[in-house]
Structures are given as C-alpha cells and as structure tokens.
Design brief:
3-stranded antiparallel sheet; 128 residues
C-alpha cells in the first residue's frame, strides 16, 4: 500500500488515535533520555524516563484534510534532569502505541528538561 490517498491515510491515523483511547485509563506519552529501543516491542528503561504526560479522553481534537490533531496533554512535573531524545505513547490500556524520535518524529521547543520543571505538549498533529 505505498500509494494510498490522503483520505485513506487520514482514516488510518484516526484509527490510530482511536486505538490510543482504548482502555480504562487515558493515553500517555513518556519522554526519555538515552538510546531508543530497537522497536516498540522492546521494554523501555524506566530509569531513563524524564516526564509522563497524559492526554484527555477522547484524545482527538480535530480531523482535517491534512492531519489529525490531538488535544494538548496535561502539565506534568519533570522527574529527572536530562535531554529528551525519544518518547513512547501508551494507550489507555497501557499498550505501546508508538515510539517517536525527538527532532525527527516530534519537535520540542526545548529538549533539555530540568528536575522539578513543568512540561506540556500543546500541539500534537499526526500527518499521513
């Protein structure tokens, strides 16, 4: 399926976002420092976690002709000083949804997080 329409790709992204809302809890995204695991199936090193952010339910804010936008996360307190190099999204059932590389898949205004600081993702757009 290398040549799907934009409409079809948006439907896939919407299904992805709906998967994020699965489970009894809210979806979360955890930012980590250090090496990203080879695949989402590999366990993340909890000692490398910098901050955990929570999405509201439902997490989809808007579906447009070019992207699906998720609602902003809550504001959380950074639990460890470090440079965010990757993030892992978990759905409401605690299942891994996706791994994101900071700087490639997700852009942060500041990747250097300080212990005790506040952190939030205001805009989260998934593009086909």
């Amino acid at each position: 399926m290398s040549k799907t329409s934009v409409k079809a790709r948006l439907a896939m992204i919407q299904a992805f976002a709906n998967f994020m809302d699965n489970g009894s809890q809210s979806a979360t995204v955890i930012f980590y420092e250090g090496m990203q695991p080879a695949s989402p199936a590999a366990a993340a090193d909890s000692n490398s976690a910098l901050v955990t952010l929570t999405f509201p339910e439902p997490c989809i804010k808007e579906t447009t002709a070019t992207y699906v936008e998720l609602h902003p996360t809550d504001t959380a307190t950074v639990i460890k000083t470090g440079t965010a190099t990757w993030a892992r999204i978990y759905n409401g059932a605690g299942e891994v949804v996706a791994d994101l590389t900071v700087g490639t898949d997700i852009t942060l205004a500041n990747t250097n997080l300080a212990l005790g600081g506040s952190f939030q993702v205001n805009s989260f757009k998934i593009r086909p």
